[in-house]
Write a structure and sequence with these properties.
With 169 residues, the chain is mainly alpha-helical. It has two domains: 1-54; 56-153, NusB-like (N-utilizing Substance Protein B Homolog, Chain A), CATH 1.10.940.10. The chain has helices spanning 3-20, 24-31, 39-54, 56-66, 77-92, 98-112, 117-135. α1 (3-20) packs across α2, α1 (3-20) crosses α5 and α6 (98-112) packs antiparallel against α7 (117-135). The longest helix has 19 residues, at 117-135. The protein starts with a helix and ends in a 34-residue tail after the last helix. 33% of the residues are buried.
């Protein structure tokens, strides 16, 4: 199953939780029901929803620092939720390349929110990614991880800790 569809469900679950105030388990059960037949997709979506909600206070501080000229409460709710999800992926999901996170968040903002949301989300996530590169993820979030794999940050990819790096014969 394509991760874009999974992320769409995650945004829907985050929105349902934000608006209804229903317990997270109930929202996950109801909104992510359609993903049950694909265990990996359901697990990824469930983890992303839980981690995004769990770290939302810390992530909101990061967003507020990047949108100093905006009243945080006036940011469109879907933009806030997509930013939370994107920053959560950047900080806590080691296996997802930052470019993928940013592209997916921009497309979700265009799909679910306003005409200019894609640009807004891109600007904020780009600034956060620059902060991560300069400060390191550990300075931005409690328990944040360093990325591993192909297509990550500038320079040499970081080797995955459980897989030995292949050398040329």
């Amino acid at each position: 199953m394509r991760r874009r569809i999974i992320r769409e469900k995650v945004v829907q679950a985050l929105y349902a939780h934000e608006i209804s105030g229903d317990p997270l388990d109930h929202v996950i059960t109801c909104v992510l029901e359609g993903l049950k037949n694909n265990r990996a997709a359901h697990e990824f979506a469930r983890n992303l929803v839980i981690e995004t909600v769990h770290h939302s206070a810390d992530i909101d501080k990061i967003i507020k620092a990047r949108v100093a000229n905006w009243d945080f409460k006036r940011i469109a709710i879907l933009d806030r939720l997509i930013l939370r999800m994107g920053i959560c992926e950047l900080l806590y999901f080691r296996e997802i390349p930052p470019k993928v996170t940013m592209n997916e968040a921009i497309e979700l903002a265009k799909l679910f929110s306003t005409e200019r949301s894609g640009q807004f989300v891109n600007g904020v996530l780009d600034a956060v990614l620059n902060d991560i590169k300069q400060l390191g993820p550990e300075k931005l979030g409690d328990g944040a991880v360093t990325k591993a794999g192909r297509g990550l940050y500038d320079g040499e990819p970081i080797p995955h800790p459980t897989r030995p790096r292949k050398t040329a014969p």
